[in-house]
Structures are given as C-alpha cells and as structure tokens.
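Page 37, continued from 36.
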C-alpha cells in the first residue's frame, strides 16, 4: 500500500510503497526508545526504497548511532532538524529497503493481529511490556524479519 508520512512541523513529507505496513514490531533498544520512542519503544515499517519520495530534504538531519563496541552504526536515522520528529531508518547495507517510523505515517495503518517485542534486554526498567495473546518476546533480535512476519500471517503484499 502507498504510505504518506510527515514530520510534526510539515517541513518534511514523504511517501513510499510498503509491502510490510503492519505496525507489529516494537523495538525497545536504547537507540529506538531514546530517539523515537517516548513510550519505551519505536515501531518501524518496511518499505521499498525505489518508490521513496521526499519533499523538504534540506530540513533532514541524519544520526548514525555509536554502538557499544565503539563503532558507528551503518543505519542512517533521519529526522527533521526543525521539529525533531524521527522519520525513517535507511541502511545502505540493504539499499532496496527503507524503514519509516509508524509514528510519522499519516495514512491509516492496518491493526496487527499480534506483536513482536524485541531488544527487551535493553528495555528501560519502568517500561511495562503490553504483550497480548499471540505476541512474541525477544531479549535481542527476533527470529523472523518484517517481511517473514507478514508472510506468516498472509498479510501485506504490494
Ligand atoms: Zn519538522
Ligand atoms: Zn531499536
């Protein structure tokens, strides 16, 4: 489905085709929760970079996180330099993909039948995990990708 998104101040707008539009994946890692997740986690969606269109590029900032081992993450976290909204992650290691934050999407997203909670080993102590029936929890990375979850549920598609 076509997704439209924007930052809060509207200086940056974007759109893309997404075959993985269900916001099921809650990441509690320190990077996600500090840069994009006031509730303790952030939700990324899957999208096709070849269809990605951006207006207001001049207002974009990019953050590449410093990792615990001292290296710099290859993931480029894009945000609006005017209002601070977290917008999307792009990693040149996977040049066909772009991962917008569900929080920046204006198109009504489908409600996921269950959720994956990941990086719980990095969760803040005060965050209560709202895991419902059928949800799966992981201390670090999950055992399936965004695309595999959609396939397993028979959801998504271009
Ligand atoms: Zn903005
Ligand atoms: Zn994360």
């Amino acid at each position: 489905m076509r997704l439209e998104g924007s930052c809060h101040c509207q200086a940056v707008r974007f759109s893309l085709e997404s075959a993985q539009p269900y916001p099921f994946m809650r990441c509690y890692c320190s990077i996600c929760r500090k840069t994009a997740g006031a509730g303790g986690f952030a939700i990324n969606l899957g999208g096709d970079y070849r269809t990605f269109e951006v207006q207001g590029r001049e207002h974009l900032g990019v953050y590449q996180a410093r990792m615990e081992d001292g290296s710099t993450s290859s993931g480029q976290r894009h945000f609006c330099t005017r209002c601070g909204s977290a917008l999307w992650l792009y990693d040149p290691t996977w040049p066909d993909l772009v991962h917008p934050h569900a929080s920046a999407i204006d198109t009504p997203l489908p409600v996921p039948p269950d959720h994956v909670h990941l990086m719980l080993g990095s969760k803040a102590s005060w965050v209560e995990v709202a895991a419902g029936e059928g949800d799966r929890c992981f201390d670090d990375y999950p055992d399936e990708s965004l695309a595999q979850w959609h396939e397993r549920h028979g959801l998504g598609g271009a």
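The pocket of zinc ion (ligand 2) is lined by residues 27, 29, 31-32, 119 (CB under 6 Å). Flag for discussion at group meeting. The chain has a mean pLDDT of 95.
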